[in-house]
Amino acid sequence: KVGWYNAVLQPAFHLPYPDDTLAFVVLSTPSMFDKALKPFVNKERLKIIRDPVDQCISHHLSRVKEKFPDQRVDIMFDYEMLPSRKPKFLAQTAAHVAGAAYYYQRKDVKLDPWEKKKIFGVCIHPKYGGWFAIRALLLFPDIQVPFLEQPSPVDCVSTEEKRIELLEQFNFHWQDGRYRDIIEVKERYSEEQKAYFATPPAERLRLLGLSQEAQ
């Protein structure tokens, strides 16, 4: 429910919907790369003009929207900004309140070792660890669900030591991706997918066999 999200944030970040409005947080799992992105790129080869992943997600969610012709469906993407340069929604907070992934933050550590350093939080999924992404929010403004019970996210990094290790790795060594394996995971990105996301965005088109000329 939108109200779960708004309840934990300052008013400046509130979503402009009634508290009982139904919303879905959309995650992409490791298999998205082979099952969705590569087929999309092969099919839409000449229409890829921005980021292939963003366009692929947008394509699939517009198809979801078509399944509800009689409903208003609002879609917010994780990369979208308001004119104020604030994100349209805070993806990790949304995932946490929806019970999809646990958002580990500095406040989850009792004996904080970082003093004045800025420490960013990170979501961990009980099945995929850090090998997933939060892509979008689907909102159904005409559907009110006062009866919906809030699920708690799975606290899968439950010890103080592990939480410190997670936040250390995410904040100071994020490039090596070790934080993603803070728990034992059921599935992770393939080597090809790791290479794709490790490549600067401007060069990713070449990896997918797309030329800059086509762009």
From TrEMBL:
Give GO BP annotations, semicolon-separated.
cobalamin metabolic process
GO MF term set: cobalamin binding; cyanocobalamin reductase (cyanide-eliminating) (NADP+) activity; demethylase activity; FAD binding
What Pfam families does the annotation carry?
MMACHC
Give cofactor(s), names only.
Answer: FAD; FMN
Could you tell me the keywords of this UniProt record? Cobalamin, Cobalt, Cytoplasm, FAD, Flavoprotein, FMN, NADP, Oxidoreductase
Known EC number: 1.16.1.6, 2.5.1.151
Can you supply one Gene Ontology CC term for this chain's record? cytoplasm
- Localization (cell): Cytoplasm
Q: What is its main location?
A: cytoplasm
Task: Quickly give the catalysed reaction.
Answer: 2 cob(II)alamin-[cyanocobalamin reductase] + 2 hydrogen cyanide + NADP(+) = 2 cyanocob(III)alamin + 2 apo-[cyanocobalamin reductase] + NADPH + H(+); apo-[alkylcobalamin reductase] + an R-cob(III)alamin + glutathione = cob(I)alamin-[alkylcobalamin reductase] + an S-substituted glutathione + H(+); apo-[alkylcobalamin reductase] + methylcob(III)alamin + glutathione = S-methyl glutathione + cob(I)alamin-[alkylcobalamin reductase] + H(+); apo-[alkylcobalamin reductase] + adenosylcob(III)alamin + glutathione = S-adenosylglutathione + cob(I)alamin-[alkylcobalamin reductase] + H(+)
For this chain, the family text in UniProt reads:
Belongs to the MMACHC family.
State what protein this is by name.
Answer: Cyanocobalamin reductase / alkylcobalamin dealkylase
Organism name: Vireo altiloquus (Black-whiskered vireo)
